[in-house]
Amino acid sequence: MEPFNVLFLCTGNSARSIMAEAILNAVGKNKFRAFSAGSHPAGTVNPFALELVEENRLPTKGLRSKDWNEFSKPGAPFMHFVFTVCDQAAAEPCPIWPGQPMTAHWGISDPAAVTGTEETKRKAFLAAYTELHRRISLFINLPVDKLSGLALKEKLDEIGRMQ
């Protein structure tokens, strides 16, 4: 069976969506293939995000900040799932993906927006990473191929509401 393609979207594609891509590709058990993109990509991966991915011994090869238009061009992989991870509570603009993939909003506070000491920033990145890992773990354990579209959508939304 071909893996399900999952796209994590955020505005800058430098931290949360990058970490989500790395986590899902590592724990997806060949059932999922993750990608990430941004509506206004920063152009670089945040060094704190990269550091955390490396500390957790996840592959970093291919991680880069990219525009979501890469995934709307001819020949781009078909997306089965699209998750937005931007934080609407902070009035952060959240991209909307056109088409028919299963979508859900999994808002995560932006660790890149945290100011202060390096330790404070690292704690913010760890909190975001931990939340993403927990949600992705719940997602990969769903019986995706056995749930109806509506039931699956409800489960995905529920994961996004978990605190």
Brief synopsis:
This protein is α/β, with parallel strands linked by helices. Helix content is 35%, strand content 13%.
Task: Indicate the topology.
Elements: E1 4-10, H1 16-27, E2 32-38, H2 47-55, E3 81-84, E4 102-105, H3 118-140, H4 149-161
Parallel strand pairs: 1-2, 1-3, 3-4
Helix pairs in contact: 1-2, 1-3
Uncertain runs: none
Helix content: 25-40%
Radius of gyration: 15 Å
Report the portion of residues in β strands: 5-15%
Number of separate domains: 1
Name the CATH superfamily classification. Response regulator
Q: Helical region count? A: 4
Q: Which strand order do you get reading across the main beta sheet?
A: 2-1-3-4
Oligomeric state of shown chains: single chain
Count of DSSP strands: 4
CATH class: Alpha Beta
What's the story with the biggest beta sheet?
4 strands, parallel
Average of the residue pLDDT scores: 90
CATH fold node name: Rossmann fold
CATH architecture: 3-Layer(aba) Sandwich
End-to-end distance: 33 Å
Which term fits the overall shape? globular
Give the helices and strands as they follow along the chain: EHEHEEHH
Structural class, please? Answer: alpha/beta
Describe, in plain words, how this protein is organized in 3D:
With 163 residues, the chain is an alpha/beta fold. The protein has a single domain, classed as Rossmann fold (3-Layer(aba) Sandwich). It has 4 helices and 4 strands. Strand 1, helix 1 and strand 2 form a beta-alpha-beta unit. Helix 1 crosses helix 3. The mean pLDDT is 90.
Key terms for this structure?
35% helix, 13% strand, four-stranded parallel beta sheet, 4 helices, globular, Rossmann fold, alpha/beta, 163 residues
